[in-house]
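Hey, can you fold this one?
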Amino acid sequence: MPIDLDRRDGVATITVANPKLRNALDVGLARDLIAACDEIDGDDTVGAAVVRGAEGTFCSGADRSLLDADVDQAGDEQYTAMGLIYRSFHRVGQLAVPTISAVRGAAVGAGVNLMLATDLRVVADDAKVLAGFLRIGVHPGGGFFTLAARTAGRETASAMGLFSEALSGDAVVAAGLAWRAVPDGEVEDVAFELAARAAADPALARATVETFRRELGPPASDGMPPSTSSAPPRCGRSPAAPPRPGPDGRARAPPAPASGCSRRRSGGGASRRRRGRRPRAGR
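Sure. Predicted structure:
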C-alpha cells in the first residue's frame, strides 16, 4: 500500500510509501491519502496525526511521469490527475486533528506543499527542503505561494518559489518553515512526542485545532488557489473554492478566483456612455 496508516495512543501516523520514486505522489497514492484522512476524521479516539515518508525521505513531489513535456498539461486527463494530487495534501490540511510533518531526507516540489499542509513541522538537521519547480521547467502549483507565504512570509515564498533556493536543517527553522530541527534519527520520535501531548484528550484537541485554524487560517486553505495543473490555470476551468468560515463561524463565500484570463469589453471605459444619462445639447 502506498499509504500506511497506524494508530497508537491516540496518534495516527500516515506514512507515504512509494520508495522506488522517493515517495513521489501519484494518483493512486493521492486517493489512498484522502481515504486515510477520512478514516482518521471518523475515529474519535484519534487526537493528533503525524505525516512521514517511508525509508528516511519525506516526499520528492509529484510523480514526474505526470509532468511529461510531451503531454498536454492542460488536457483533461492531466488536469484531473494533478487536481487529485493537489486535493490530497489539501485534505491533510483539513484533518480534524492537530497535524505534524516529520521531515527526513528531502521535501521537494509538491512534497513541500504536503509538508506545509500540516499545522507543525519537525525536520532533520540534514533534511533538504526545495520547491524547485522552475528548475525543472514547471509552473508552481497547488497553492505553493499561498502555503509558503502563510507559513514563512513573502521573502521565503519568493526565494523558494521564484529563485529555487534550497534550505536545510536549522535554516528551515530560521525561515519559519518548521518548529524544530533535530538529528535525523530523532525526527519521528520528537514528532510523535509532540503529537501525543495533543492526543491525550482527543475531543479537546479537535475542538482546539478547529479554533486555531478558524482564527489563524487553516494550513492548506479552503481559499487556496484551486489550480489543478502544473500549467497556468485554464480559463473557466478553476473550480470555485468552498465557503470559508467568517469571524462568527458562519460560512462566507470566498472571492471568485482569478481565472488567468482577461475579457475585452466593447468600447473603452473612457468612451462608454453612462446608462441613464443623455448627451447634453450642443455637444
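Residues 76-93 form the longest helix (18 residues). Let me know if you want another pass with a different chain boundary.
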